[in-house]
Amino acid sequence: MMVKITLPSGDTKEYTNNISVLEAAKEISPSLAKKTVFATVNGIDQPLNFKLENDANLVLHTKEEEASLNSLRATASFFLGHAIKSFNSEAVLGDCGFSDDGFYYDSDIPSGQISADDLPAITEILNKDIKEKSTLTSIHTSIDDAINEFKDNTYKVELLKSLKVKDVYINSWNGFKDFSTVPLYTNYDQIKYFKLLFVAGAYFLGKSSNKMFQRVAGTAFFSQKELDEDEEKREIARSHDHRVLGQQLDLFFVDPKIGAGLPYWLPKGATIRRIVERYIIDKEVAAGYEHVYTPVLANLDLYKTSGHWAHYREDMFPPMDMGDDELLELRPMNCPSHIEVYKHKPRSYRDLPFRIAELGMMHRYEKSGALSGLQRVREMTLNDGHTFVALDQIQDEFKKVLKLMMEVYRDFDIKDYKFRLSYRDKANTEKYFDDDEMWNRSQSMLKGAMDDLGLDYYEAEGEAAFYGPKLDVQTKTAMGNEETMSTIQLDFMQPERFKLTYVGADGEDHRPVMIHRGIVGTMERFVSYLIEIYMGAFPTWLAPIQVDVIPVNNEHHSDYAKKIEDDLKKSGLRVQTDLRNEKMNYKIRESQTQKIPYTLIVGDNEKNAGEVTVRQYGKEEQLTMSEESFIKLISEDVANFSRETK
């Protein structure tokens, strides 16, 4: 009996019944078969060993595709689970899978956890396994059948129930079984280009109330060249990583024992944050915003009215029952609080635009697995602002917000960014407020404003907030990843839900439009961005310590060093004098390690002449100048936001 296979080109081929996907690929082209990782058969992804029993449409997926890399990494994850079990038979296996970064497997060993020192031994087992010639099967099946298959493993059953898919793959090799969400690469000897990277803690299902497993993470590619290039990128990433630099430079720390996702700002890190906060407040006040303080707690009814409870509940902390039917909620957003400020008294058209801003603290119910240094936290302070305008004021206000953004970007020397217009996904009625007229009107107004300004932008469906479209400013991180730095959002929904009004020139009540905007996002994420972009070598105006004064000899020159420190502090500079009982060259090296912009060395010559010897971070040459000349030099550096002048 023969089966007819239709290829994407429309060509058809006939094969003997029960031929496998891999065998069919070999008959098409041996070179194609070598590159094929899995196939799509009649719309369902299938492994290479899948038998073609009936006529079918066949799509072969090769190594060049992202989905194929996911399959490779899912296969590596499967064998990692087997290796962990071989390493210690007591291991209880939990979650596993692939990510944009690689693959992982979570396990718990009652007699003792896996450490980084165990990775070479696990790697050796992995290498041995992938050299075996046993058969790996990957069978597509329903979630219900998979739950029945793993009914004796509580963790696997819970994981299966948590998936938002209807089907999975049950994989078997040498008596070891597991499931995956993609078909495995049954030519598993191709997993040889891998590396185990680290061991970390990971809560089961990402919930801190659940058991913590040990996560072994690695990465895998189809070639040694790709693996080597990835390692180079990781080395660069480590040199930029704000978590590493934050520890080296004593900026902040996060301790899961105290509270995961809750950073502690140390004096130097707090100084950077304070400079940013003062800067942005001054810019906003100058731009016509009035700053307010509003509580981090509010009655749950406020967030029911705003729609956050209906659309954002999974990211909110559970309400606190205060008794007497009072439920208080940690706010996930500041906008409802600012709406209440607007509502505090009657408003007239003469009050518009009404601009308010706040460095508002918010809380998000982030899963532990998603937390990362300052970039992803559970408590954050947002540089938030809201403007209430009449319809005919939208375009002018939009331009003013953009102008403010551009000024801020210039001062922080942020150049690599682009504009994204973020729209709703019409099909996703659960996420987005259901009002076609509102969406069509607000999206066209936002697009029209960008067109009027003549700015380049691209459009992204499904990236809007639940209550309205937005303009996102997408910046490049130090590692080249794209993330949202700033947003401007038009909102016709919230004023309607809260019944906001203003009295127009005609004496009648009118509904204002609400503009949400954030210039630099949260303090946490923005500071992490700055740490990584500058690699901890902050420009002078932002540096927590701008000047390090080092006496050649403590006994003879400390008085002069302290005088220099006092004079510089009177000029508004952040200065320290290093009076430790260490050699001068050691102190200079330490000053460079801490990436302090200016190091001043003072000895007999400097003391007698009223001068300082200046060494700037990253430069070998030293200059000797008067104290007054140095104060003028560094003051101009700070005033110019440390930009190079021509």
Give a written overview of the molecule:
With 646 residues, this protein is α+β, with helices and mostly antiparallel strands. The protein is 36% helix and 28% strand. The protein has an 8-stranded mixed sheet. The protein has a 5-stranded mixed sheet with strand order 2-1-7-4-5, with helices on both faces. It has a 5-stranded mixed sheet with strand order 31-30-32-33-34, with helices on both faces. The chain is globular and about 95 Å long. The chain starts with a strand and ends in a 7-residue tail after the last helix.
Task: Give the helix/strand layout.
Elements lengths: L1 E5 L5 E5 L2 E2 H8 L1 H6 E6 L2 E3 L4 E2 L3 E7 L3 H22 L4 E7 L4 E6 L10 H12 L6 E6 H7 L4 H9 L4 E7 L2 E5 L13 E10 L8 E9 L3 H17 L1 H7 L3 E2 L2 H4 L4 E2 L1 H20 L3 E2 L5 E3 H7 L1 H4 L8 E2 L5 E4 L4 H9 L10 E10 L15 E11 L4 H18 L5 E7 L12 H18 L4 E4 L8 E7 L5 E10 L1 H5 L4 E2 L5 E2 L2 E10 H12 L12 E5 L2 H17 L4 E3 L6 H10 L4 E5 L1 H6 L1 E6 L5 E5 H13 L7
Parallel strand pairs: 1-7, 17-21, 23-24, 30-31, 30-32
Antiparallel strand pairs: 1-2, 3-6, 4-5, 4-7, 8-9, 9-14, 10-11, 11-12, 13-14, 15-16, 18-20, 19-20, 21-22, 22-29, 23-25, 25-26, 26-29, 27-28, 32-33, 33-34
Helix pairs in contact: 3-4, 5-6, 8-17, 14-15
Q: For the CA atoms, what is the radius of gyration?
A: 30 Å
Largest sheet: 8 strands, mixed
Number of helices: 21
Structural class: alpha+beta
Whole-number mean pLDDT: 91
Instruction: Based on Cα principal axes, name the global outline.
Output: globular
Range of helix content: 25-40%
